[in-house]
Structure prediction request, 253 residues.
Amino acid sequence: MTGRAWYSTPLLWVGLLFAALLFGMPHLRPLFEALFPDIRPAVYDRDSFWALWLSQAAMVGAASLAAIVFGIGLAIFVTRPAGRDFRPVVDALAAVGQTFPPVAVLALAVPALGFGAKPTVIALFIYGLMPIIAGAIAGLESVPAAVREAGEGMGLSAWQRLRDVELPLAAPVILAGVRVSVTVAIGTATIGSTVGALTLGTPIFDGLVANKLPFVLQGAVLVALFAIVTDMLFALVERAASGWSQGRPGTAA
Prediction:
């Protein structure tokens, strides 16, 4: 990539905007005071936006990592001969998890886990499974049978074929599912603020309760930019994985 092309990438500018607002939101106080003269303070100041983002990113990261490991593991299991009979059960459970409202998961988890980050992580984990499972199954099943047979003919064990052939070729589709799961989790994590978790949704809910529109705008803009930057990063990784998998020997049409 040329220096000019790198300089003009949307990811760079959106990332810079996100970082600037994340650290510099308090400096926009005069602007918000001019736009909303009857609201004081005009900028959310109970916690720094940096601290709120770190807390949310940690919850999204923990939940997404668990969902990735568990989801891909289930997908591998149901695409092996020993686990094919469990495919309908896994599909049904993943679908139920996706349709079950995260707020309901929080309501059920709070009595057992208490307020804070734990119930939020559980809700994000359950809600994020379906895209990962669906993507992993689709990716593994898209590996050509001829490629599997070639690996078997080379004397590779089932584990070696999975590790060296199937997973690398399925990586772009698997990453697409992970991308959807993580991006959705970023937006969904904001509801964790209703049970005491610190997220970028905290200013949003505080603003709604106190009728302070600037707080809502500040939190919403940062959450949106966080999701957009993350999605753009995943898009770069997907393109790299797709190019790498297409360049592997034996994968050309």
